[in-house]
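Supplementary material to the annual report.
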Amino acid sequence: DAGVIQSPRHEVTEMGQEVTLRCKPISGHNSLFWYRQTMMRGLELLIYFNNNVPIDDSGMPEDRFSAKMPNASFSTLKIQPSEPRDSAVYFCASSNTGSGNQPQHFGDGTRLSIL
Amino acid sequence: AQSVTQPDIHITVSEGASLELRCNYSYGATPYLFWYVQSPGQGLQLLLKYFSGDTLVQGIKGFEAEFKRSQSSFNLRKPSVHWSDAAEYFCAVGAQGRDDKIIFGKGTRLHILP
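Predicted assembly:
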């Protein structure tokens, strides 16, 4: 079975540019999570969706960050405008939470570098 | 709210030696507990999980973990490590019957000496 698929794997861009990260969750999973990982702050939950609806976006650092889930098989995380401090690895994860907490399955991440 | 602490940032063991990685959680009821492993350049992979029942949980790659409610701990163990076990290990806790979030510890980086 295909796991969580993220694209691109690497992104290098200049500050001020718009960045869009993409995620395809595991088919049948109804929850999707976006995380950011840095050496200084570790793994941070940015936002999560359940049945395509954003449930908790308290981890989104500021208004420059936005996330959407237009359907059950696709989500985007957008940064506009990007800044060097946004450089990190961004992970998408999905789970099937029909009856309570279930393990999250992670993609391989997008390594983002803002110059 | 739940929280999880991994007291050791780095652990170094010799190949073939036994391993124990510590994890302490804070939660008022019975938590869901997980251990994940992250190899360089990759995402997190689930090693094992505890939801209920037997407090000794077996996982993949020869790992096991024991849930001790009295100590609020969920330590990860392996009797004999291999060089390929060098990675970062994350303990995580979720809340039964609550929202879908799980909270991750800061991670423990495991180094293996040949």
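DSSP finds no helices and eleven strands in chain A.
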